[in-house]
Amino acid sequence: MLKFNFSDFEFECGTDEAGRGCLAGPVTAAAIILKPEFSIEHLNDSKQLSEKIRHLIHPEIETQALSFAIVHLEPEVIDEINILNASIKAMQECIKKLQPQPQFIIVDGNRFKPVLDIPFQTIVKGDAKYMSIAAASVLAKNERDAYMDRIHKEYPMYNWKKNKGYPTEEHREAIRKYGITKYHRKSFRLLPDQLSLDFGI
Predict the structure, then answer these.
(1) Could you tell me the residue range of the domain that residue 119 belongs to?
(2) Which reaction is recorded as catalysed by this protein (predicted)?
(3) Which of 132, 112, 131 minimizes the C-alpha distance to 122?
(4) 168 assigned to some structural domain
(5) Number of domains in the chain
């Protein structure tokens, strides 16, 4: 059973990101403050939900939110500051957009950096424990999937519509065959045998 609040503050926001482990595409974060009467039957950690359920509850989450924001950080930023820092930055950027400003932040995972001097708590597997983090995880996942569906049309050979940029065998095979695109994260190990390829030429 998901809990509504971690703190005693009225305006507590939950935040989460999607796409950390991908080879291509942005890392996408969402932050959300819930209305006190917030109640959605199937809400859970987005990884536990089918795509159908995620899309079904997405508009409900937005309607029942007091405030929410979603941010994509592009591969160039990920390559420049690394994926952990990019994930944190994306969540921070979302939080800055919320109105009213949150009084407390709960974050999925175990790493975060202060933003706007707001107190925060990191919570491992928070998306399976708190409604706001679960709601943020659904928004981030859906918005990132939609982004990958859009860029799939530009580069259909990587089948991002299906793999969403994750390191599937099919995705890696396409990288071997076609090389990389502007959407690939160049700081990631895109192929398992990349080092021998680089030095063997």
Answers:
(1) 12-152
(2) Endonucleolytic cleavage to 5'-phosphomonoester
(3) 112
(4) no
(5) 1
Query: For position 107, which CATH number holds?
Result: 3.30.420.10
Residue 68 lies in a domain: yes
The residue ranges of DSSP E strands in 79-184, in sequence order, are: 104-108, 120-123
64 assigned to some structural domain: yes
What b/e readout covers 121-139, taking b as 16+ CB neighbours within 10 angstroms?
Answer: eebeebbbbbbbbbbbbbb
Residue 16 assigned ligand-binding role:
yes
Q: Residue 12: what pLDDT?
A: 98
Residue 145, annotated ligand binder? Answer: no
With tokens 């708590």, the residue in question is 121
End-to-end C-alpha distance for the chain, whole angstroms: 55
- Give the separation between CA 115 and CA 199, rounded to whole angstroms: 42
Using CA atoms, how far apart are residues 124 and 2, in angstroms rounded to an integer? Answer: 14
Beta strands 27-34 and 65-73 are: antiparallel
Q: What is the pLDDT of residues 33-82, one digit of tens each?
A: 999 999 998 898 788 899 999 999 999 999 999 999 999 999 999 999 99
> What residue type is 120 in one-letter code?
F
Q: For residue 122, tell me if it sits in a domain.
A: yes
Task: Confirm whether residue 17 is marked as ligand binding.
Answer: yes
